[in-house]
Amino acid sequence: MADMVYNGAKRRGVRAVAAVPMADMLLFCVESAAGSRVAYFVRLDTLRDDVPELHRFSCPRRLFDALVLGGLYALRASGRRLTAAKLLAEYDIDESYFTLLLELKSILFRRGEGLPSFEPSAYYSFAELRALLEYREPLLFRAANALIRAVAYAPAFLLPPLFYVLLLSARLKANASPAAPALLILALPAMVFCMAALYRLAQWLLLRLERTRYGMLRAYTLRHGGRRLALSLGRPAKRRLWRFGAVSAALLALGVALDLLL
User: Fold this and answer.
1) What's this model's pTM, rounded to 2 decimal places?
2) What is the pLDDT of residue 116?
3) Cys-Cys crosslink for 202: which of 88, 152, 216, 251, Cβ 3.0 to 4.6 Å?
4) Is the per-residue pLDDT at 16 higher than 70?
5) Read out DSSP for 173-241?
6) How confident is the model at residue 1 (pLDDT cuts 50, 70, 90)?
7) Do 249 and 187 touch, CB atoms closer than 8 A?
């Protein structure tokens, strides 16, 4: 499917930007990350074509915040930057078309070389995504949630490095064995594993707290253009984490053994 869409897009010469006023542009996806805000539109009269005509624009914050997913707009752009958008109507995009648009977006505006893999199950449906993007937290509520997240994530970033520094200090002050440098090096993966495990635990707890859940889900899907944030680790991710933990523990045990024997 991806190859067919990609080859069709090249044959039709799909353009990603325009510098002239355009009418009947349907908004189907938005992204916001690291200060960059991007909106993706499809020209309505091409929606039923084999390869719909997509356009991508960067947006100022005020304009970006006013966009409505599924909105039909009359646009004005300067190069790649959207300068004005007038809402004409609102539509519910059929899920089959919505999935096709997301897949085509991932191909035409991909990062790096090669075709990306596209898994429809990893993305929200149109109705789910629009409902999530419409969720807004009041300013004070958002500030309080940011403080809660900072407190929850703090142990992951503070405790493992602190223990490692204490270990380093203890070995430097003591009559360290020749294997002490090896112990300090072999203990690094264990520190990284503890940071990753504590971070995952904090995220898991925050996602189960209704107060913070929806803000986190919304922020994630905005960064990743409609992708879902899993509420728990999948089986492959769990296997990778436990494998990393086992290797880290083995390296730490080796370092301790060398330190005791030498």
Assistant:
1) 0.78
2) 57
3) 152
4) no
5) HS---TTHHHHHHHTHHHHHHHHHHHHHHHHHHHHTSHHHHHHHHHHHHHHTTSBPPPSS--HHHHHHH
6) very low
7) no
Measured between alpha carbons, how far is 242 from 152 in angstroms, rounded to an integer?
22
The two tokens of residue 69 are 């997913």
Residue 86 Cα distances to 16, 65, 147, angstroms: 20, 13, 37
pLDDT above 90: residue 7: no
Q: Quick: pLDDT tens for 134-164.
A: 998 888 999 999 999 999 999 999 999 999 8
Label residues 205-244 b or e (16+ Cβ within 10 Å = b).
ebbeeeebebbbbbeebbeebbbbbeeeeeeeeeeeeeeb
Q: How many residues does the chain have?
A: 262
Q: Which residue has the tokens 């930007």?
A: 17
pLDDT digits 0-9 by tens, 82-116: 999 999 999 999 999 999 999 999 888 876 555 55
Helix (H) or strand (E) run with residue 56 in it:
strand 54-58
- HSE-up (13 A, CA, CB side) for residue 142: 9
Handedness of CA 257, 258, 259, 262 (dihedral sign): positive
Look at residues 249, 116, 119 and name the one whose alpha carbon lies nearest to residue 188: 249
Q: Which two tokens stand for residue 229?
A: 């944030």
Token pair, residue 100, equals 């096709």
Looking at residue 123, the DSSP 8-state letter turns out to be B
